[in-house]
Amino acid sequence: MRKILLGAICALTLLLPQVGWTQSAGTNSLPPALRAAVQSGNPNAITQAIRALSGGNPQVAATLAMNVATTAEQLVAVNPQAAVSAVEAAVAAINPTETPAQALSVASIASRVIVNPAVQRVAPQSVGALAVTLSQLASTPSVYQANPSAAVTIMANAYAAVTAPTVTEASPGAEQQVVSALSAASNDPTLAQANPTTAAQINAILANANQVQPSDTDTTQQTTTFETISTLGDTGGGSNNPPIFSASPN
């Protein structure tokens, strides 16, 4: 059954056109079956390929999901629709309970993708749905504890994406869902134990403090991310200082 599934996924490259991008955009680093799924632009096919190739091993699935997310970020400039489809699948394929640190890394990349103006223009509904998922994922205690600073950055990007005019118009209910997730996180005692300034940081996000919305008329296709001083590699229990968010093009 697994061989049949992988064969079907590979066949997608023969059936679906390659629109606006090629393997050189970053897919060459992926296994052939997974590369075919990413090229198809079908999130379900990508998720199925990850699960088939991982053989049920959560660590392998996490590695594959991370590779897909990394590829997706490289695709933003040439095919933003394919990029959002790929990160959507990567987030869905990872198990935050089994691999919280890897889930955080995938979510971090996904959060950078969804604040890109080009991505928001071509897939505003997908961006809205992903913003909700990412806000909830970053609020999961095991994921948050892996790196509170990185988790707060994901929350900030999710809120920035969901409040962008294009996304708000296409997904009017998504903003409230993100706000609800962040509000609940700000009152979660487990998160507060990992980072005593959790509530203050989240309140700053919801107050739109120090955040710069990417312009809907921006034609440079730059990615605006909100980064804390701490890096993703930090694994400590969080900083005692409130985060300083900075908008930086990638």
From TrEMBL:
Keywords: Signal. Residues 240-250 have a biased composition (Polar residues). Residues 230-250 are annotated as: Disordered. Residues 1-22 form the signal peptide. It comes from the Bacteria. The keyword Signal applies. This is Uncharacterized protein. The lineage of its organism: Bacteria, Pseudomonadati, Pseudomonadota, Gammaproteobacteria, Oceanospirillales.
